[in-house]
Amino acid sequence: GGPRPLPGQEVSVKVLGALEDGGLVERDPRLIFVPGHGDVVQALELGVPTMQPGEVSFFLAAFPYAYGRPGSREPDVPPEAPLLFEVTLLEVRDGPDPQPLPPAVRLCLGSQRRERGNFHFARGDFAAALRSYRLSLRALDGPITGETG
């Protein structure tokens, strides 16, 4: 039990993802992400916020909610492959606030978000790319602290 994740909160999940033939394509004992930031497949983005800590859920994801029309990490995930995810919500905590972070850390976070946006853009998911680019700018924007000019 416990409260479901709220927008902007960070979650830790244990996740297993398998193809229809049972081939395991995703295994992470502690995946950390902020739902809505576009860092994971849509099945997790949409499903995890409905869970409570300690809950185990199964998500059968059609290809648009998994790795999309082109698939990913070939040959692990073929094009248009539906996936079955087993997800355990381990922890919910407040998301990181990039503003108090040192500039070098904010730059790294911004770069990670930009790369994620590039990934979405290359796949033709322009809405997700735009969301990632905005998150990148948010990580970079803000006062420079601890530096002298």
TrEMBL record:
Annotated InterPro entries: FKBP4/5/8-like, PPIase_dom_sf, PPIase_FKBP_dom
Catalytic activity: [protein]-peptidylproline (omega=180) = [protein]-peptidylproline (omega=0)
A GO MF label: peptidyl-prolyl cis-trans isomerase activity
GO biological process: negative regulation of apoptotic process
Keyword Isomerase: yes
EC number per UniProt: 5.2.1.8
Keyword Lyase: no
PANTHER family in alphabetical order: PEPTIDYLPROLYL ISOMERASE
Protein name according to UniProt: peptidylprolyl isomerase
